[in-house]
Design goal:
single chain, 333 residues, mainly alpha, 13 helices
């Protein structure tokens, strides 16, 4: 190994260690990029329709988001708050129902006896100290979200100069390819965000309508959870189904089965019909790749890593296809 190769390897190691130390900064930056692309999609559509410059289009999109959000808030928030209050009342009833059902299972009483052992409180003290740190974590997360939104607005306001800055730091031989790859990443990420937003809205409306027809309590709250967790494929829909199933358990076993069938139908329609159609022209992620990305980034970065795993995989898939496959593997003689 010559000196140049050794120096390059050392630089890669230093950059890797630096990236790990600054992983939360990089996570906030990439979250801002995702939000900026989400804003850029309606900005681009609006500028195609109206003769607006980018700042005016950005202000128009933000005003539209605030107006539509306020209208939906006035329409849905009162009922949503009422259902949250109902949920707080139903939780003790649900606990009693689960305990009553669990009493018929033979091996659960032994677990209950273990939980009532004298030394249990001492063992739970570290958990209590961790819960006390949640307030500081919530404040830190709020600051990170604020910085993410601010960075997203700045990126959406002038994406071309930021793109040119990234291209300028690459070697001259690779600049054209870098510009092409960045454009492909923008198209793929924008298409994924638009497709997942429509898919999540469809799941929300279908779940709300289905639960309302079945006369299941807390239909709006359950549908909202199902819609939002659609952005976390594979894991999200399964977790989201627990809330309507728990509420249906309070109604009757028949309602529980009906809600389970409803959710299975909606999720299969979303996974095998709606999402493939919406994402057919942008990016198609394999379920195994999506799940492994969520598990890896979740283990490294926690919940923020899970939320940003799929947008990151979308970009990495484009980079691998355009650089590794086309530029390296396809030319390998």
């Amino acid at each position: 190994m010559n000196n140049r190769a050794l120096l390059g390897l050392l630089a890669l190691v230093v950059l890797g260690l630096l990236a790990w130390e600054l992983r939360w900064v990089l996570l906030v930056l990439y979250g801002a990029v995702v939000l900026a692309v989400a804003l850029d999609v309606p900005i681009t559509l609006l500028r195609r329709i109206l003769p607006l410059n980018r700042p005016a289009a950005l202000v128009s999109v933000i005003v539209a988001i605030v107006v539509v959000g306020g209208w939906l808030g006035r329409l849905l928030i009162p009922e949503l708050l009422d259902q949250i209050n109902q949920l707080s009342i139903l939780i003790p009833v649900l606990s009693q129902r689960i305990v009553a059902m669990a009493s018929h299972v033979n091996w659960l009483p032994s677990i209950e006896n273990q939980l009532l052992q004298p030394g249990l409180l001492e063992k739970l003290q570290p958990v209590g100290s961790q819960l006390l740190g949640l307030a500081g974590g919530a404040a830190n997360t709020s600051i990170q979200l604020l910085l993410m939104v601010l960075l997203a607005l700045l990126l959406a306001l002038d994406p071309r100069n930021h793109q040119n800055l990234l291209i300028a730091i690459t070697p001259k031989l690779w600049r054209y390819k870098t510009k092409e790859v960045l454009g492909e990443c923008r198209v793929a990420l924008g298409g994924w965000l638009a497709g997942m937003t429509i898919s999540a809205a469809s799941v929300f409306l279908l779940t709300w309508a289905g639960l309302s027809l079945l006369k299941i309590p807390l239909a709006l709250l359950s549908a909202l959870a199902c819609g939002l967790l659609t952005f976390v494929p594979t894991i999200g829909p399964t977790v989201a189904t627990l809330l309507p199933l728990a509420v249906a358990l309070l109604v009757s076993p028949t309602a529980l089965v009906q809600v389970l069938i409803l959710r299975l139908i909606i999720q299969n329609v979303e996974a095998f019909l709606i999402t493939p159609i919406l994402l057919s022209r942008t990016v198609n992620l394999l379920p195994t790749v999506a799940l492994m990305a969520q598990l890896c980034l979740g283990a490294l970065l926690g919940l923020p890593g899970v939320l940003l795993a799929l947008p990151l995989v979308v970009v990495l898939q484009v980079i691998c296809e355009e650089v590794i496959v086309k530029e390296l593997m396809d030319r390998w003689a």
